[in-house]
Prior knowledge:
Helices cover 42% and strands 15% of the residues. The chain is α/β, with parallel strands linked by helices. The protein has helices at 8-35, 40-57, 89-97, 115-121, 132-147, 172-180, 227-242, and strands at 4-5, 61-65, 78-82, 101-103, 151-154, 183-190, 204-205, 208-213, 217-218. The strands form 2 sheets. Strands 2, 3, 4, 5, 6, 8 and 9 form a 7-stranded mixed beta sheet that branches.
Amino acid sequence: MSGKKASKLRFYWIAAVTGLVTFYSCSKIIVGSIFVKNIRPLVDQTMLNWAKKLLDLIRVKVTVVGQDNMPDKESRPIIVMCNHSSLYDIPVSIVALQTSLRMLAKKELFKIPVFSSALRLGEFLSIDRENREQSIKDLKRAKDKMLDGIILWVAPEGTRSKNGLLASFKRGGFHVALDTKALIVPLVIKDIHKVQAGTDLTLYLGQEVEVEVCAPIDAAEYSVDTRRELVEKVRNTMLVALNQSQEV
Length: 248
């Protein structure tokens, strides 16, 4: 690790400020929804400010390459699929793309007071695959939101990698991509595990990370029968960008 390890005192300070900033951001969205008719720009800016503050706390410098690969969000449904190594993947993605990015969140998050209200008002999405009737409604809402300019962020690995190596992919995000005929934009964050990795809460300050926006992959060219090929295409694209081997 080339960065400076945060002391326990520094860690607790960062954790406390992170919690306060998150609560403030959620409250701003909730209150803003009362006074603002079109809340999306407010949510976009609030999320960007939140992400910048969190990255400032750990002094991370973000460099972005391949920005021209990001398609026009009004033309097609778009899903950003990102490698997942750190708690900071989402803030880094928000700062790198600076668009109407929303996460495909676990349905359990929609039960947390204040946070859940901000998620709903902020147009965050959840797909309940255990309830077919609800799943159909969720997918229609997801497609409508993406056609209206929301870009869905998905971590196809499901859980955070401990060492930065790309793990095998779960199918959930690809179901959504196929059902909505979305453009999938592979996004790789390099060296983010050197800031914080997996379930290890140790923080390393003053790091530099590079984000690469890869060329989009059209899910409309695939079907349920060829889903495995789509998964492999996306994963291999990310492996190449990360300069990693094909082995899991």
